[in-house]
Design a protein that fits this description.
With 689 residues, the chain is α+β, with helices and mostly antiparallel strands. It contains 19 helices and 27 strands.
């Protein structure tokens, strides 16, 4: 569990790095009332996908925002060296995102294991965070004010969960109460589609764009009363001096936006305002809203032969080994580099002259312009990350639990395919006895998730103040999985039937065309204010719908037998049409991983055995034929103006948790797996030949 450390003020100058662990340097002088820095902990996976820099993390008694990566440097400086994660293929993908060109390292979260609960290992590490929002409310007397109006209490270094803010002297506190009333975060914020987030201006709001007119009042005393149990914008803000009041529900919706102030371009995780300013409209957003923070991440399963240094990362490895000044001094002289690397006994000595020359050229080339970075990202297909994995999975392991190499940690066993599965279209099964998955964060978005923001490069919020990060945070997860592959010939034949449905479905609903048109409407109608571009390029082919739906029903079924919860299982879908650069793919991998342990327990591997897998697939397909929401679910076909991106799939039968699905429960339809009443002919496992 990675510790989360706190600094109270989020208005520090941009060049003033957070050092919330600074009080640990003076432990001998600390007294019982000394504020402790540690306020909580979280798993690395949570800090990557749910509570990363710029997100708001719920603690037992208040909320914090993990700071940008600049502030992590102060923490890493406490150690003589900084650990890194070796994943050149992922590093190359990260560097394709605008603003990430300078990234040369993937670093784990600042954490170290402890021998015992009370030992000191790792006390010098933690993720820096700011208290946010910094406006709190006393539930006793309804006082609404900034942190300075409340007292911070955190005296037990072994109980960070007791850290809290109190309103000492609350007039409504019970008589004889020795501690103050615990304050809670005020739950209203301002956000904009460009990723900015700000405190709600309560004083400005209650006085309708002005300040308190009471003579001599510099800072008005505000109160917030709640009704309807705190659901929605149900509060009203009051000024104790001038008796003005204004309900928060006036700030909701399209009409409410016109009453809100302009966006100030604030990035609280960086402690700064966007120097470019912001012209986007602000909107009211509640603390804890699901669209407050969307992680922009990339991930790979580490594969043998695929994790060699690639041309775009060679230069960074050379820079790390010899330093920027020597690169400038040595120029293109390979001999001088060789001499230095020999003296330092660097592993880069093993590079060929071609590799070294490529590294020198890459290290010396100027940074690409923003336009060039945008163009490179537009030309890059994320499927490229999956192709090396797919290619390696086509090779037969030499024997049981065969390891490709020690660096990847991947161990595979080829399993016989049960006769019933062969007849059903399954052509290949591997048990993934051990694997490593590396996940990296490149930024985040607000309001719209990364894939639904067409101008995504401009909307991804940076993780550093400089905009030139030299590293980014990543996790190295270890686990296991099951890989299965469908027969390409049968998939191609089935795909042709789906695309040519009018020839054999005369007068009936063309299911595939309905999905395609719904996707176009969704692209045009989605919440993003910048939805422009080509909708067709984002629409997945029929084989993806098939494999994706199969993956979901298998996840639900495997959770009943593997010993893992459905939320701890995730998918990796290999489904794309063939091109000149890559062959077609039709396979899926269901995996479970853990980022803070040495691996998992083998429950999925057991399910890869022929009899077990045949039983799981047979039961999953049987369940897919019937949903308790049928016939509503089974007959669901999007019609204008509907724009949903799934068909016969709901939370009862096929949808999975957000931790499991790589597409947010889009592109799912049980009718592509099996025939459902009224849609005979679409099911692959009934008509795959």
């Amino acid at each position: 569990m990675t510790e989360v450390t706190e600094q109270r003020s989020s208005s520090a100058p941009a060049d003033d790095a957070l050092d919330p662990l600074g009080d640990l340097d003076a432990t001998d002088t600390q007294k019982a009332t000394k504020n402790r820095a540690k306020v909580g902990s979280a798993r690395p996976s949570s800090l990557l996908y749910t509570y990363g820099p710029g997100a708001i993390m719920d603690l037992p008694h208040f909320t914090v925002m993990p700071a940008g990566l600049d502030d992590w440097e102060k923490v890493w400086a406490r150690r003589p060296s900084v650990p890194t994660i070796h994943a050149p293929r992922l590093l190359d993908a990260v560097r394709r995102f605008p603003g990430q060109w300078s990234v040369g390292e993937l670093r784990p979260f600042p954490w170290a294991p402890k021998r015992t609960q009370f030992s000191k290992e790792g006390d010098d590490l933690g993720v820096p965070a700011r208290v946010f929002p910094q406006w709190l409310r006393c539930p006793g007397c309804d006082l609404l004010g900034p942190l300075t109006r409340f007292d911070y209490v955190n005296t037990n270094p072994f109980r960070p969960d007791r850290a809290r803010f109190e309103h000492v002297g609350c007039p409504r506190a019970p008589k004889g109460r020795k501690v103050g009333i615990q304050a809670v975060p005020a739950r209203y914020l301002l956000a904009c589609p460009n990723g900015h987030l700000d405190e709600f201006p309560y004083d400005w709001w209650v006085h309708e764009g002005g300040s308190c007119p009471t003579p001599g009042v510099v800072s008005a005393t505000l109160k917030m009363t709640e009704r309807a149990g705190g659901k929605g914008a149900s509060a009203t803000v009051h000024c104790a001096q001038c008796a003005a009041s204004r309900p928060m529900n006036q700030a909701q919706g399209e009409v409410g936006r016109s009453k809100l102030p302009a966006c100030r371009g604030r990035h609280p995780h960086l402690g700064m305002f966007d120097p470019r300013g912001c012209t986007a409209e602000t909107r009211l957003i509640l603390l804890g809203a699901s669209n407050l923070w969307f992680a922009a991440t990339q991930s790979i399963v580490v594969m043998p032969e695929a994790e060699k240094a690639v041309p775009s990362t060679l230069g960074f490895e050379l820079l790390e080994a010899v330093g920027v000044k020597r690169v400038e001094k040595y120029g293109d002289d390979l001999a001088r580099y060789r001499d230095y690397l020999d003296e330092e006994e660097s592993p880069l000595v093993a590079w060929s002259d071609d590799q070294l020359a490529a590294a020198i050229a890459q290290a010396r080339e100027p940074e690409p312009t923003v336009e060039e970075q945008f163009e490179a990202l537009a030309q890059w297909d994320p499927v490229d990350l999956l192709v090396p994995e797919w290619n390696y999975l086509q090779k037969d392991p030499i024997g049981p639990r065969h390891e490709g190499d020690a660096l990847s940690g991947l161990a595979l066993t080829k399993q016989p395919v049960h006769a019933d599965l062969t007849g059903g279209g399954v052509s290949r099964v591997l048990s993934v006895d051990r694997l490593r998955k590396v996940n990296a964060i490149v930024g985040f978005t607000r309001i719209d998730e990364m894939e639904r923001a067409n101008d995504m490069p401009a909307r991804i919020v940076p993780l550093t103040r400089s905009g030139r990060p030299t590293w980014t945070a990543a996790t190295l997860d270890q686990g296991e999985g099951v890989y299965l592959q469908l027969d390409e010939g049968r998939v191609a034949a089935w795909e042709g039937r789906v695309l040519d449905a009018p020839s054999w479905r005369a007068g009936a609903v063309d299911l595939w065309e309905s999905h395609r048109q719904s996707h176009e409407r969704n692209f045009a109608n989605r919440y993003s204010e910048t939805a422009v571009g080509d909708a067709e390029s984002r629409f997945k082919p029929p084989r993806y719908w098939l494999l994706h739906t199969l993956s979901h029903v298998l996840i639900r079924e495997m959770a009943m037998y593997s010993g893992y919860s459905a939320a701890s299982l995730s998918e990796r879908v290999y489904a794309w049409d063939g091109t000149d650069d890559r062959p077609p793919a039709a396979g899926l991998m269901i995996i479970t991983t853990a980022s803070d342990s040495d691996g998992t327990l083998g429950g999925l591997v057991q399910l890869s055995r022929p009899e077990n897998l045949q039983r799981v697939i047979d039961r999953a397909l049987t369940r897919a034929r019937r949903c308790s929401s049928d016939p509503v679910c089974g007959n669901r076909v999007p019609k204008d103006p509907e724009d949903f991106l799934h068909g016969a799939a709901c939370h009862t039968c096929a949808m999975a948790s957000e931790t499991s699905c790589e597409r947010a429960n889009r592109f799912l339809d049980r009718r592509f797996l099996v025939d459902l009443p009224g849609f005979a002919g679409y099911g692959f496992f009934d008509h795959g030949a």
